[in-house]
Amino acid sequence: MIKQNILSIDSSLQNNLVAMLYNNKLYYNVHTCKHHEKNLLTMIQNLLTDQKARIQDFQIISFTTGPGSFTGIRLSASIAQGLSILNNIHLIGISTLEVLAEQIWRLYKIKKIIICNIANKKQVYWVKYTKNIKNIWNGKEVLLHINQAVQKIKNLKNTWYITGSGKIHFQNLYNPFLKYIETNQSYAKDLIKLTILAKKKKNFFLLNDIQLNYLHNPKY
């Protein structure tokens, strides 16, 4: 069996997540932290040490590209890029919103999901994802004014589930086709799975390819 050791890093929202698929087993650590830079590298080192692994043992490094915290995303991207360059390891970027969609699929087997996260006081990051027969999420991530998002909710004509911090703007709206659902902090499996799918499609990043999305919400 060909080795497929993967190291994945996420610090796009309130938490630091370090996950690794090592010798076909999943290991991860999640830490709630407002100061991402203080413990992300330590988390990586501890996870490697616990399994007696070296960074050179990995074939893929992935990280979340946002939308999310400016500091958190820049930090995880910088660490992932640095480790990739120094050790000649393939680099993959995964959308934070797609990770949330994948978690919803794993937990509830829902194939149609709206992810809506607050960007700032007037805008939200928005995507309507559908999962195809090849397990690929199709959807376009856009930045919308809240009023535009509200109108899209009003216009729904069939059942959609919605999650994300932005759903707070729609809770006083009534549309029988809209269902609310929650995600949680345990999305290591989902980040690893999306990394594996991206690897199969050879969606590797070059340094100039990376586009990061930042939230403008002071909460983060």
Describe the structure.
One of its GO terms (cellular component) is cytosol. The protein is α/β, with parallel strands linked by helices. It has two domains: 6-95 and 185-209, Nucleotidyltransferase, domain 5, CATH 3.30.420; 97-180, ATPase, nucleotide binding domain (Nucleotidyltransferase, domain 5). Helix content is 29%, strand content 27%. The strands form two sheets. Strands 6, 7, 8, 9, 10 and 11 form a six-stranded mixed sheet that branches. A hairpin with a 4-residue loop joins strand 6 (112-118) and strand 7. The model has no long low-confidence stretch (mean pLDDT 88).
Number of helices: 5
List the helices and strands in order. EEEHEHEHEEEEHEEH
Which architecture of the largest domain per CATH?
Answer: 2-Layer Sandwich
Helix fraction bin = 25-40%
Kindly report the average pLDDT value: 88
> What is the percentage of strand-forming residues?
25-35%
CATH topology tier name of the largest domain: Nucleotidyltransferase, domain 5
- C-alpha end-to-end distance: 42 Å
Structural class: alpha/beta
